[in-house]
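Worked example 4.2. Below are the chains of a multi-component assembly; read each line carefully before continuing.
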Amino acid sequence: MPGRRVTLRDVARSAGVHSSTASRALNAERRHLVNGETAERVLEAARTLEFRPDPAARSLKTRRSYTVGVLIPDLNNPLFPPIVRGIEDTLTTQGFVALMGNTDNDEARERRVFEGMRSRHVDGFIVATARQHHPLLDQAVREELPVVLVNRILDDDSFPSASVDDSMGAQLAVAHLIQLGHRRIAHIAGPQDVSTGRGRLRGFELGMAAAGLPVERGLVTFANGFTRAEGQRCLVEALARGRDFTAVVAGNDLLALGCYAALEEKGLSCPEDVSVVGFNDMPFIDQLRPPLTSIRIPHYEIGAEAAFLMLDRISQPRGLVQAKLLPPELVVRGSTAPPRGPA
Amino acid sequence: MPGRRVTLRDVARSAGVHSSTASRALNAERRHLVNGETAERVLEAARTLEFRPDPAARSLKTRRSYTVGVLIPDLNNPLFPPIVRGIEDTLTTQGFVALMGNTDNDEARERRVFEGMRSRHVDGFIVATARQHHPLLDQAVREELPVVLVNRILDDDSFPSASVDDSMGAQLAVAHLIQLGHRRIAHIAGPQDVSTGRGRLRGFELGMAAAGLPVERGLVTFANGFTRAEGQRCLVEALARGRDFTAVVAGNDLLALGCYAALEEKGLSCPEDVSVVGFNDMPFIDQLRPPLTSIRIPHYEIGAEAAFLMLDRISQPRGLVQAKLLPPELVVRGSTAPPRGPA
DNA sequence: TTGTAGGCGTTATCAC
DNA sequence: GTGATAACGCCTACAA
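Applying the procedure described above to all four chains together yields the following structure tokens:
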């Protein structure tokens, strides 16, 4: 029934004050400049009128758009929906909104999306696509646009970031297998040009070292992508070198699915012949045969954390650059068991 | 290196005209009101100065934002990522951008998201959350904001919509089972207050009728939600009535997963004892045991189609109201087989 | 503590 | 065909 939109003046009129007073009362940072009782009246009026400040008008004045650009490779990757939700839910609490863009890891597309957002004056970029060298990030920095990385880290800590402790995750996986009695453990490592691939490999090595186990050359195989096909190729390759391992830590769940396929192809069974641990705890992997043991990553929380970092950044562009590292969690299912024979 | 932002006045000054003239020259629709030569000069100036109109200012005046709000229940539902990508990819080609909001089917949250978008002057709403009665839609209509439904239809054709032919999908499933030799087929029907639930039930009935098979009372069980738990509950219930069916058409894949669980619980096997057909062809259901036969829905295309309808709507608010119905496709996998004994 | 006035960048509506 | 002026809704010096 309101029909027309409610403006600040309407609120002011209804509260019997001037619009500037209303403005002050409604802004938490300037509320102290106004009589407590008056402020209360304004807030009350705003509430009953369901006043919503117009971001366009505000933006015109403050040079803020209350909008954040989110760059992800591909929303269809099940990793990203929960991250995006975490981002969105958090931004919403502060009246911000997210513009989402899929880049498909395609440079031209990435640039197009970036420009589209920049021209809409986004207040910052949350980026999930960071490779080691990234011209877009440089440009954002030049234009003093805040950038927060999510789920990826660069080697130098030049950007705030929210991600999972990949190394710890891989260590959890290795420790679990060792506790089951495994001694010879293989690793299908993800691409080494992204931080997740590197971190998990390092964790694997650290985990083995912590148990005093050598990581021999043949135990690590490098995948060219986080795909099922690559997982299959790599494990087949590793098996071809002579199956001297009883367990595999896969760089992520898709690689683990590839391991399932490779084992089936070679007539081996999981977990009887080879235990498999995934990474990410994707939806529905508990429905696989066998249900996949995996490292659960708090994706939603990572997204939320990234959004918090962005909000910080927007209000304090020169603030501390933080790298939030969230702890992963081991989820034991049916794909891991003690090794068959004596090690 | 520009440092300061370039405004319309800068362009005007540089071209030696008044800002209103510059504005006209830069707007393709009003360019004819201005001397061709002058216009050329303005455009040239704009180009060299790298002028970018401020969307906030423009939006404040025109109430247009080149932005479309997308309301979905929950991005984590694997249905939606491809739909959203279809929407986004299509909008992008016309310089539009999507604001995404998750409602969790919660009315308060829905309203908040809606308001946030409205206040950002979105040019329209693409809505995936339509139940039969929907105050938000009424409000949008009152404010003359275009609304397009995606993946849902209302009974009256009051809104443009893009969705799949649910009835045809269920008919495909039934026909497939009949061809395998099944005669007594059960249906786990989804909630009847959403169009997908109703459409699939109708398709089931039509498919049975087309084969001259009766749909007896006990063969249809109604789920209270599209969840695995409900699927399990319903099939257990159906089995308890006396297992006189050899196949089940589930209202969607999650319900089908529940059927798997129910069969396991009762010591029955799929497809030997009971064939199961899902609906949606979610990612990774080909990895289940057995891989699930399902009805594939062209989600990306549905999203793209919805975006096209929205763009039409924005340029012609009074245009024809179209309901696009895309055809689904049967994907046969391991969960369906001929019935064991003679019917 | 509150009000006044002016402006953010753009476009619509008048005059000329 | 072009220029002047006012407004969109909000914020913020500055004055009272």
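Take a moment to check your reading of the output against the notes. Chain A is about 45% helix and 15% strand. The first strand of chain A starts at residue 67 and ends at 72.
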